[in-house]
Design brief:
heterodimer; A: mainly alpha; 7 helices; 0% strand; B: FAD/NAD(P)-binding domain
Chain lengths: 152, 548
């Protein structure tokens, strides 16, 4: 077992890496969720959130079984999405949990956020630059309309 | 009643009886504490949560967006912090949302800060439904004004959709690409719009607070103190004036003396020890679920159906603001994730009753910003996920920063069967019975949602959105909890009088949205705080009589 892993076994990590690359595949030169370190972050999430462990592990296990006797890692990469679709149909709740945690793992990666143009990657402490002050002239049309509140 | 802990007289007693004991340190409790302390009245407040420090917020963490699903969820059942209590939501399509801390649910809000209109206090007279309030808009107006100055409200005068009012102390939220897109569509349709009143700082205002730096996720709290949450507006001033605030103090029940007057409260301190705080008057500020829960949990020989519940109205008439979310995708990058999430523009074109629409009362559209990458991938406001697989990146790029959203909010009318009761088995971590929510969406409200969601779609399409997604009747939308200890002149059909004083218990007051008679179609916090200041003003003028 990889000493740095907190919850998954090494074997589960390899499986998760391959599965995550199908859920969020490579994008041009950018790696998919698995290649970008998503499986390691998934491991950290599972270590900290007992509430999501069971469905995620169920989904990973179901994917490995659905791939056939040789398992998912030996499956033809081009056919791997079909395996996930089979599990999605058979176990929608567990599969949805796996997708959610994959998105969590991938889109909390600073490198991924930078690649999407998020500078800064976190909303604080910098925030974003101020926009233009409001121009009251924009309201000229609205101001000229009749009162719409009811007197009582 | 069976007792799990000793009688209050046998418990550790807090040192002195306080003039006024406030239960809950949120929007209303904070305003009352400040007002009474300023009047020289002794105030103690018991709050089940604690203070949030800047470092407690997730905004500087790489996984900040994920905290919406865990410790900063709006839903206490999801969040599950030690200070939260569970709710049985099995019998409601809308989950009550709240936050338990100093500042209460204003920690977790968008700061959208409209006032009610005069017609909102005369619903029966004008529209023949529900009931009129025992007060009118003009009764509240001076307290709206006072509150605006205290919290720091950004906005602009001259709106023809609302009565004339004093100037806001701060300029409206700045214009950004999202605002221009919305304005273009609204002008094409000829619909009302106005910069939204925002309880946030658009310019320097007050010590220790910073101007909004447009970081975006106001719903996760504001580590800068730019959002006018009660823990940075009223509480520092109240404490300076001598108010006492006890945190991590969960109240089990309001105690009464032999005459049936409130005598204080039993609470569990941070070590789990049951204590009694004596008081000459008690103010309930626990929100529209927490207040009826505590009143019902305070049943005694004198008040067998719950405290202040001779009418049977405690817990009844629960109102939410049922909402639909509508999001539109645009071709251009609008950096929609930048800027305060919920404060941009508002449209009140459909606010007043027009029966040709198929329903009575009205609705409002709150036009606002959108989310960052993770929340966008998970579906954003409308919960339509970005698909996994080969199409993932293309769809994400179409949405991220290019999405604008509308909260389509309707008025909800009071109905007796919509209520908060005590669950038979569910309890909080101190063994106190938890609330059970029973709520059904009325046909009128459903028609109103359908109408306003369709208008929101029409607006986004007119603005140029090439794809529009809807989530009608959002399950996680019970931010506004109203009506469960309502005010009125008749003790048989209301819990408190026009000053928020319980009909049955002359030194017991309610100041949160429980006392709303109707809910209007807009966010309630401005009205909650104005009512709280009004009640505090009355207590201040009558405190000797109340304490006698």
């Amino acid at each position: 077992m990889n000493a740095e892993l907190r919850f998954l076994t090494g074997e589960q990590l390899r499986l998760a890496t391959a599965v995550l690359d199908v859920i969020i595949p490579p994008d041009g030169e950018r790696p998919g969720a698995g290649g970008a370190g998503g499986a390691e972050r998934l491991d950290a999430i599972l270590a900290e959130r007992p509430d999501v462990r069971r469905p995620v592990l169920d989904a990973l296990r179901a994917i490995d079984i659905a791939a056939g006797p040789c398992g998912f890692l030996a499956h033809d990469p081009a056919a791997r999405p079909d395996v996930l679709r089979t599990v999605e149909a058979a176990q929608p709740e567990a599969f949805t949990a796996l997708v959610t945690q994959t998105y969590n793992a991938h889109y909390t990666c600073p490198k991924v956020r930078r690649a999407l143009g998020f500078t800064p990657e976190n909303p604080q402490p910098e925030g974003y630059t101020q926009a233009r002050p409001f121009d009251p002239a924009l309201l000229e049309g609205v101001r000229t309309r009749n009162r719409t509140w009811r007197r009582v | 009643m069976s007792r799990l802990v000793p009688e209050s007289s046998e418990m550790p007693q807090d040192p002195d009886a306080t003039d006024v004991l406030i239960i809950g340190a949120g929007a209303s409790g904070a305003a009352v504490a400040w007002s009474l302390a300023r009047a020289g009245i002794g105030v103690t407040c018991l709050e089940q949560g604690g203070w949030l420090d800047r470092t407690d917020y997730p905004h500087e963490l790489p996984d900040w967006e994920m905290h919406r699903q865990t410790d900063f969820s709006n839903d206490p059942n999801v969040r599950g912090r030690p200070e939260d209590y569970p709710l049985n939501n099995a019998d409601t399509p809308i989950a009550p949302l709240m936050f338990n801390a100093v500042g209460g649910s204003t920690i977790h809000w968008a700061g959208h800060f409209p006032r009610f209109r005069p017609s909102d206090f005369r619903v029966r007279t004008l529209d023949g439904v529900a009931d009129d309030w025992p007060i009118v808009y003009e009764d509240l107006e001076p307290f709206y004004e006072e509150n605006d100055l205290n919290v720091g409200v950004a906005g602009l005068n001259g709106d023809p959709a609302n009565p004339p009012r004093g100037p806001r102390p701060l300029p409206p939220v700045a214009l950004d690409p999202a605002a221009y897109v919305f304005i273009d569509g609204l002008e094409k349709l000829g619909w009302h719009w106005w910069p939204a009143d925002g309880a946030l700082l658009t310019a320097p205002y007050g010590d220790g607070r910073h101007v909004c730096n447009r970081c975006g996720p106001c719903d996760l709290g504001c580590p800068n103190g730019a959002m006018s949450s009660a823990h940075v507006t009223y509480w520092p001033k109240a404490l300076d004036l001598g108010a006492r605030l006890v945190t991590h103090a969960r109240v089990r029940e309001i105690t009464v003396d032999a005459r049936g007057r409130a005598s204080g409260a039993v609470y569990y301190d941070r070590d789990g020890v049951a204590r009694h705080q004596a008081a000459r008057a008690v103010v309930m500020a626990c929100n529209g679920v927490g207040t009826p829960r505590l009143l019902l949990n305070s049943a005694s020989a004198l008040f067998p159906e719950g405290l202040a519940n001779s009418s049977g109205y405690v817990g009844r008439n629960l109102m939410f603001h049922p909402i639909g979310f509508v999001s539109g995708e645009f071709e251009e990058d609008l950096v929609g994730y930048q800027g305060p999430l919920g404060v941009l523009l508002q449209c009140q074109e459909f606010y007043e009753t027009d029966l040709s629409r198929g329903f009575v009362r009205g609705c409002q559209m709150q036009l606002h910003h959108d989310f960052g990458p993770l929340t966008t991938a998970l579906g954003g406001f409308t919960a339509h996920r970005v698909p996994w697989g080969a199409d993932h990146h293309r769809v994400l790029r179409k949405r991220l920063g290019r999405t604008l959203s509308i909260t389509a909010m309707t008025e909800d009318l009071p109905e007796l069967h919509n209520r908060v009761t005590l669950d038979d088995t569910l309890t909080d971590s101190h063994g106190i019975p938890a609330p059970k929510i029973s709520y059904t969406l009325s046909d009128n409200t459903r028609r109103a949602i359908d109408f306003v969601v369709a208008r929101a779609r029409e607006l986004l399409e007119t603005c140029g959105a090439h794809e529009v997604r809807e989530l009608p009747c959002v399950p996680e939308s019970g931010w506004h909890l109203m009506g469960t200890a309502r005010m009125g002149n008749d003790p048989e059909t209301s819990v408190v009088d026009r000053w928020g004083r319980a009909h049955d218990v002359p030194n017991l007051f309610v100041v949160d949205a429980s006392l709303f008679v109707t809910g209007a179609p807009v966010n309630p916090t401005s009205t909650i705080q104005a009512l709280a200041l009004r009640t505090a003003s009355w207590i201040g003028a009558h405190h000797r009589e109340i304490a006698a």
